Amino acid sequence: VLYHLFEEFSEVGSVTVLDGFLGVISFFIVALGGVLVGAIYGFLAAFTSRFTSNTRVIEPLFVFVYSYMAYLSSEMFHLSGIMALIACGAVMRPYVEANISHKSHTTIKYFLKMWSSVSETLIFIFLGVATMEGPHSWNWIFVTATVILCLVARVIGVGGLTYVINKFRIVKLTTKDQFIIAYGGLRGAIAFSLGFLLNKSFKMREIFLTAIITVIFFTVFVQTHSSVSALLQMILHSHSMGQSLYKPLSYTILWCYLMTCYYSNSTRQTVGLVRAPGRSMGRLPSKQQMSSYISLVLLNRFNKKYVKKFLIAGERSKEPQLIAFYHKMEMKQAIQLVESGGGSKLPSAMPSTVSMQ
């Protein structure tokens, strides 16, 4: 969005304060407009997938077509195509996945993995060719400032957003997690593509491309390699944390329903702590946490009562979230056993969804 904005500013020549103000407004319109377009196509895809039970073979096609249409529609109206794709995928995930068959889900998953790898490979091949071909315009001050400002902006962005979401998370993102996210990212493939598309008559085009290529090489060869050991430590930490993840998750769900009933805005009532064997649940949640819990309960009720019935076909719309998650994990575990050659180790009678209910 900012790329197109500054591209238009460069063609105008003189930019007034009013132009800058209108540019800020257009930034939010373009970004939020892309989200809206993507959400609309996501709901259309979910509604369409309700009626594909007899023609399973076309289910992957619907997913690809609606996603691509979201991107094209946004670009046609000069909105953010990337934001449209993200919003479309976020809306399609819980509803379309419940409607399509497991074979269609597998087809979509591996087809997109393949094309993402192919696209990334082509971009970096193109990057290598552009690096060797040139022409380049090296400026130590501009290139160094670009690398430093990219790192600073990334740290500010990750730290600021993490500070906000940690207010609502039960399992907080630690300083180590934030460091890996901030330091281990920022490749710049999209920046390189946009810079390469600049008009060749643009006098700063060569120095822009040189700075972008330098940032990409710095983040690939310096940042990535130096953060591998810290990343491995984080992965080991996440595996050990998984065993205790059920405790805060179950307590959160319990607080959602208990505190929705017993909490009042005028006075914080002292509610007796629910204890596990020999353990306490700890302090009462804050007002901010309670408001998010109440919102979560109301949102889940609205989703189950209205949205899921409209977008999900059959009995899956009435399936409790825990049962649906168990059903998904059961299928995933069975596939992993078969792929690893452990199909003979499958138990004779796996617990069914009916018995779980």
UniProtKB/TrEMBL annotation:
Q: Report the Pfam families cross-referenced here.
A: Na_H_Exchanger (PF00999)
Ranges of residues in domain Cation/H+ exchanger transmembrane: 1-226
Q: Does the keyword Membrane apply?
A: yes
Report membrane topology. Answer: Multi-pass membrane protein
> Where does it mainly reside?
membrane
Which UniProt key words apply to this protein? Antiport, Ion transport, Membrane, Sodium, Sodium transport, Transmembrane, Transmembrane helix, Transport
- Provide the transmembrane region boundaries: 20-45, 79-98, 110-132, 138-166, 178-198, 210-236, 248-265
Q: Where in the cell is it found?
A: Membrane
Listed InterPro entries: Cation/H_exchanger_CPA1 (IPR018422), Cation/H_exchanger_TM (IPR006153), NaH_exchanger (IPR004709)
Q: Give the family from UniProt.
A: Belongs to the monovalent cation:proton antiporter 1 (CPA1) transporter (TC 2.A.36) family.
PANTHER family in UniProt:
SODIUM/HYDROGEN EXCHANGER, SODIUM_HYDROGEN EXCHANGER 1
This protein is called Sodium/hydrogen exchanger
Natural source organism: Goodea atripinnis
Q: What is the lineage of its organism?
A: Eukaryota, Metazoa, Chordata, Craniata, Vertebrata
